[in-house]
Amino acid sequence: MKKTKTIVQKYGGSSVKDADRIKAVAERIVSYKKNDTNVAVVVSAMADTTDDLIELAVKIAKDPTDREMDLLLSTGEQISCALLAMAVRELGFESVALTGFQVGVLTNKEHGKARVHSVDDKRLKKAFKEGKIVIVAGYQGITEDGEITTLGRGGSDLSAVALAKAIRADVCEIYTDVTGIYTTDPRMVPEARKLKEITFDEMLEMASLGAQVMQARSIEVAKRFNIPLHVRSSYSKEEGTMIVKTASKIEDIAVTGVTSNKNEAKITVCAVPDQPGISAKIFNAIAKAGVNVDVIVQNVSHTRKTDISFTVPKAELPKALEAAAEVSAKIGAGEVLHSREVARVSIVGSGMRSHQGIAARMFEALAQAGINIEMIATSEISISCIIALDKVDAAVKVLHRKFALDKG
Ligand code: ASP
Ligand code: MG
Fold it and tell me: How far is the CA of 152 from the centre of ligand 1 (A)?
């Protein structure tokens, strides 16, 4: 007997934005339902539903309780999953819509960003046995105490991956409105090429450096349990990009993609006394203010004083500046400067581990384009430069060309 295949498909909010799209997605779902294939679908809230609900809540309460917020936001996915199950049934297929709580997505108590402990497979297996297509509301779970939780913005990706792990799915397909993962943003560089595959590590790095395709936590979980992901478009049958543990082609590629992030701001604390413990004081103060620090650069001191620069998300700049000014006064440092006119450009590739001279080639390309590098940060598989904001589009283009990413 042939082994039954199990697939999980996740449809994002834009894929189910109205009745027509819900019907189109239903058609797509049933085309995968064969006798030897079980299909479980995870769906996000329609279009901007989640944003609209948040907006509504803050009109009513200054500081709504986390518990009620989760109760409210989880309704978005309940709507889309019920409608999608109806659409599937209209096409003559048995289907059942289940909320995250009905499935048994058990989470911790952290409302708004709950972590998934486990997913119960009983109800899903029973539905599969009855030949049903299961439609599950994403983004939500339930605590041991029966409280409803949500998994953080973009959390339906995590629901899908957790579900795929629970039912040992052969593949987890992530449907979105783009056709896959590109070497860079095609809106910035028309020659950008769709990647056939990318590793979990590269995808995680790209996500944290600005590519907004999948929720980073969901990629981490997929990596941990080695669940292959297929990112593809709900508008076409075209193959998308596979996210896998190790790339199958043993080709000579050092750089896989270029990303940029215009959301950073730079702070410089001038004339910091060059003594042990001073950096700890500065960054403790910034952390206490709830700000995520990104790239950090400290200059050598010739005068027992040094400048320390770092970047923070633009939205957190006011908080960070306040904390920096306070701690600077305390430790006897000088002025605190800042700039919003910076951006980050990064190259990412697992191949960097085994290739030399990648950084030099990156800096060379930027220099040839007359782009000044203000700060540099590296990880095992990425190199980032902080540059002027108005140069970042040009930087992405020259780096894409320098590493021949359009050639494949
Ligand atoms: N609806 C939720 C959000 O907009 C979850 C998701 O879309 O994955 O963040
Ligand atoms: Mg959404």
Answer: 8
